[in-house]
Sequence to fold (964 residues):
Amino acid sequence: MNGHDLTTPQGRPGLSRRAVLKAAAAGAAVLTTPALIRQAHAAASTVRIMGVETAALNDWSSFEKETGLKVEFTGINSDPGIFRQEVVANAAGERIDIFLMDGGIEDELGAKGFFAPIDPAKVKGWSEAPAAVMNSPLAQGPDGKQYGMPVVMNADSFAYYPEVIGEEEPLSYALLFESDKTLGKVALENTWLTSLPMAATYLKVAGKQAIGDPSNMTPEEAKAVVDFLIARKKAGQFRALWSTFEESIDLMARKEVVAINCWEPAVKELRKQGKDVRYAFTKEGYNKWMICAYVPKEAATGGRAEVVAKALSGFLGGAYAAQIAVLRGYATANAKAGLAYAEAQKMSAEDIESIKANIAKIEKKFAAPLFWQNAAPTNLQAIEAEWERFRQA
Amino acid sequence: MLRTTLILFIAVWAVFVVVPVALLVLWSFLEMKDYSFSSGLSTAAYAAVFDSGRYEVTLRTLRIAGLVTAIELGLALPFALWLAKGVRSSMLKAMVLALLTVPFFISLASRTIVWRSVLSRSGLVNTALMHFGIVEQPVDWLLFSEFSVHLGLLAPSFPTMVLPIFLSISLIDDELIEAARDLGAPPAKVLGDVILPLALPGIIAGIIFTFVPLLGETVVPQLLGGGRVSMLGASISSLLQVLNYPVAAALSTLVLGILAALFIALRLIGGGSIAAVFEGMKR
Amino acid sequence: MSAPGTITRMAADAPPEVRPVHVRAGRLEHRLGLLAALGGFGMIALTYAPMLWLGIMSVSADPLGGLPGPFTLEWYDRLFTDRRWVGPLLASMGCGAVVGLACAASGLLVARALPQLRARGALLIAFLAPLFIPGVLLGAGLFLYLRVFLGLRLGWWSVFLAHFAWAYPFALLALLVTTTRFDTRLNDAAADLGAGPWRRFVDVEFPLIMPGVVSAALFGFLLSFNELARTILLRGTATTLPLFEWAQATSHSSNVPLIFALATLVLLASLLLIGVSFWMLFGRAADR
Fold:
């Protein structure tokens, strides 16, 4: 390998130490690894986090400064299956202090005893965050216990080109599923998790199909929704299904499609390219999601509990909120702390402006009706099988 | 000592690789909840394979992988022969081998996503076609179609076919070929009677190296199939996402069954057996 | 570098009648050869054109959905500002090296013995078995077995095991192609001349099967370096470069620096590395 991509990062000892450690562990492979990992965890004030990269910071140093902890982050993707596997079968709780995962999963894993309930009194900043958010069904188990603490959130709809769709908002999800304007020029996210409930919401509000909870459908309801989607697929409504963030940007940037149910930061990227793309305010409502922090039951007692409480307070703190807002355009549960932090730290006016815009946007969207994205619907396997039927049609 | 090491290695392989693979077949006949399997046998998983259209995915995957493998073989065999026996300069040889090896380093997703700028509605091909007035509307089937999936799979699968064939042909003694020619054999006969039989192990290895990984390929079908050309890898991933191990196992068992059937059919037609492969290698 | 030396020495010392014979090419063969070369280089072009495009886009302002230019080093700048990928890259290289060495060593062990064994057919099937299981499912199978059945704690060792199980069939077949072709009478002849087992292996057998050994090690390294499907479930808290990119893919942030700039750097580095090492291994050694 050539020299420059292996340079030791200057002034970031934590990273380079990890890098060296990992390389050493890889080299020594089997035997020496456990010892090295123990050594790395020996420092008492390290918080070991495993979670989705959406909630990760590129640089944890200001978070570390605010909390007095060292962060050791293991990234996973948002696949709930992998996460379940880590927690249930792989006993991740033994070596991880905090999980960051899409909310909804606690209905299953909390109720089964893998997560410990969180005591709001021990978390600084909890009372400053809006109660409606903190008590969302995505953070509480079916038994009403507080298993999760909301961390990062947004309300998703779809992106579109106003030059094709028109200027007027709010828009209907009909543009995604049933519209001549967008025929053959729509892309959907390739997962039942977001695309099925959006279609269900559209059908429900349009009165075309009786559906109880779009994010927790019965097998019959899912079948009806997929029958509708298959009919639309046959009519040529959909151009493609996307799986990665880059794909969604690429599809819109070359106008391969003119409407897409993507993540909001994609719109930010597209506008940076000079494309007039907007993220829709809708009639029917939004796919509201949040990433929550969960505490494995093993980390709820003793010295680990102290570390956990500090880290949870950090996620409701200003340093974290300000960075997430600038990095992704998302809000944390205590977004206003981010604004205060940004102003105190004299961050750029542009950054402060975008933090303000985020707060306003979240307030508007979270007031809208409809569903909370649910990674653990009751009829999970039946819903997946129906989605597969749509993909195969 | 070598013998003890060998036996030890075979034992470790059996315990850590063969047993889990064999268990996959067993799982396909069980039902599972929360990481514990039911005790009774059931064929529910196989019924699910047929109900959700996954059976068609299997057939489609076999078809695409088969066609791509055939194209690779058609291009790779002459190329490997030329490279091994026709090229004098060892510098050129080393260069070509290096060029065939380097792509393994590059993430397939990076290599694949750029095809979109060539094949999309506003891509290079469509722009050219419309510029020269060959078509009036952009051609849709260039991207997100079986065509684009085949095209995207071609380049990544080429080295795995060429390398083993090249290896086996370059091991053929030049004297043997010259001797056959001195005895008056025409080129076609030299190829058919001397080179191909001796290169057979490499050809078989190349077919396996190419065909089997294609069965599990997920990146290209997603990025260039746009979710319209579903292949086995994605289908299995999707099942594992909802922890549906029995159906995933049933799907793989089905593929193994089809492969075994092909193998037996080949054996009946060609009269080959595994031992014969070794004999072929020894010749 | 004893092996190339040995070959050169043998070629120089050999009496004229056993000096290598070059295959003569007639006109027809020449033309067909050109056609074959054209097909092969066509595929190589098909491989490198996208990578060239990748390189060009890595210095362009809008790599996703845009056209080349205006040119900028922004993505490289970002790549070196946020260096979280360095650790995973080093880890992947280390893991690949271990897998490659293990594949070459154990592959050599088995490939030399296998053709002589009576149970070779069954053993070959057992060794090739993981090749026929789709990647994600082999990962799931190993996970359920190691973690759920045996209750072991996963980490780098299970990542290594999964990579090894995946790469080993490739390495073994590459080695078998050369070892089965090795004429065991050469060993007998060397023994008659008084060479011990070690000398026979080092001076006679190894130089002849070296291409297979190198291929085995290379297959091990390369297949491990980019492995993702099997690694996901067996990682414990280990992070390889493909795992890092996999996790980043759902970060809701642009990964253009990783997809374009890092891939371009890896391409340049591996072109250099592989080019030089192949030239040393094959190019120079075969010159005679």
User: Anything to note?
Assistant: The radius of gyration of chain B is 23 Å. Residues 271-276 of chain B have pLDDT under 50 and may be disordered. The interface with chain A takes residues 34-35, 48, 51-54, 56-57, 109, 113, 116-117, 120-123, 140, 143-144, 222-223, 226-228, 230, 235, 238-244 of chain B (CB under 8 Å). Strands of chain B lie at 32-33, 36-37.
